[in-house]
């Protein structure tokens, strides 16, 4: 049996841009359950598949002078929703792609600026939450 993938080596591309993020989380999918009771079943309803729902993805990165992701969010606040394909790829120790997830029709729904504290020594982190309309494991 092969070794499991490590979660600390990955890359993320948003549209044509590839960027480094300190954390990527929240990409999940679930199917709603629709319960249906037939007249001849007294106590047990049937369970049917309903809508598929996808969780929001959160991207976190160290603040720099780049405004690319902030501007993507800002454009959405002005009514210009630019949907992108997001690819999240796990990388092995040799730098080879070993697993990939593709997220379709993504756009930002929330931006969080870093908080600052004069007594702290951490990196300032920006956060972007994106919504999407589907994901697929491609590798």
Automatic annotation (TrEMBL):
Signal peptide start and end residues: none
Record-linked InterPro entries: CHP02241, Phage_T4_Gp19
Segments forming a coiled coil: none
A Pfam family assignment: Phage_T4_gp19
Protein origin, superkingdom: Bacteria
PANTHER family: CONSERVED HYPOTHETICAL PHAGE TAIL PROTEIN (PTHR38009)
UniProt-recorded name of the protein: Phage tail protein
